[in-house]
Design brief:
heterodimer; A: about 110 residues; mainly beta; 11 strands; globular; B: about 110 residues
């Protein structure tokens, strides 16, 4: 049990376009989901904390208008990277919390 | 069966003790093995990164990978109260293109 999925696993988009990444808890309901960004061989940087039905809480330095987070249900949170630029290319990981934190497999975003 | 199994703890040890944290896995394709330390409500901090089998040492931390047993360990020597955190193992078959995390072990080092 306690599986978290992300879709897509890999996406390539052109500069200026928007990309939506989904994070789903498959067999449990999560009141809180987290979005992280990771560069190769580095720590996961917490971007925002998302609670179902309320606005996400963004970490300092993360542009909320650029990284739109929607937590529409207890099993789904989405991260939309708006007007993507090459510097947004990274690995994005979500996690869902119910007693413990369960991580998704990640989404690799490449912006050309 | 989950891809990666990790005892959630909590694990409570006295200051100065040697701590052993472990994960088992089922997918023989995993090649890259990571250990992260996470303080409450912070992003996991990468502690150790190893490729394939063997040992890697960094200060008070030693990571071991035994691919034949599908078992990885993180040892912390001379543990300190500041080591109190949740430790996550993670694995990848193809170098940071897909991750499989353990659920984390909560460690408490008592002064």
């Amino acid at each position: 049990g306690a599986v978290v999925s992300q879709h897509p696993s890999w996406v390539i988009c052109k500069s200026g376009t928007s990309v939506k990444i989904e994070c789903r808890s498959l067999d449990f309901q999560a009141t809180t989901m987290f979005w992280y960004r990771q560069f190769p061989k580095q720590s996961l940087m917490l971007m925002a904390t998302s609670n179902e039905g309320s606005k996400a809480t963004y970490e300092q330095g993360v542009e909320k208008d650029k990284f739109l987070i929607n937590h529409a249900s207890l099993t789904l949170s989405t991260l939309t990277v708006t007007s993507a630029h090459p510097e947004d290319s990274s690995f994005y990981i979500c996690s869902a919390e119910v007693n413990e934190q369960y991580f998704g497999p990640g989404t690799r975003l490449t912006v050309t | 069966q989950k891809e990666v199994e990790q005892d959630p703890g909590p694990l409570s040890v006295p200051e100065g003790a040697i701590v052993s944290l472990n994960c088992t896995y089922s997918n023989s394709a995993f090649q890259y093995f990571m250990w992260y330390r996470q303080y409450s409500r912070k992003g996991p901090e990468l502690l150790m990164y190893t490729y394939s089998s063997g040992n890697k040492e960094d200060g008070r931390f030693t990571a071991q990978v035994d691919k034949s047993s599908k078992y990885i360990s993180l040892f912390i020597r001379d543990s300190q109260p500041s080591d109190s955190a949740t430790y996550l193992c993670a694995m990848s078959p193809d170098n940071f293109n897909k991750f499989y995390f353990g659920s984390g072990t909560k460690l408490n080092v008592k002064p």
